[in-house]
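Chapter summary example.
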Amino acid sequence: MPNVKIYADDSLAAAPVAALRAALPALRDLLCHRFGVGPDACQIALVPVAGLPDQPPVNVELLILPRPDRTPEAVGAIAAAIRDLAASAAGVRVAVRVEQLDPQTYLALK
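The structure predicted for these 110 residues follows.
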């Protein structure tokens, strides 16, 4: 259940934001392949934000449920792949943050 929010600073020009939007299917494919889930398990949103000028203009927040195979090394490799994909698409600096949710308290209604 990868849940991804891509925060794009509103100071970005239209072209990088459009490129990020165009890269969303590739991002979902990456998530599905790396996490072994189907497309219906993914939730991805591109959100415009107002941030500080010294922060990366694109920040990706990934929320996942823990599993034994989601080691820090494996999750770090996935985060790096997400960062590379987003940075390549937008042509700007990208930060990625990952949080593993508590499966005892997580609830999703679809």
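To summarize the output: The helical segments are 14-35, 72-90.
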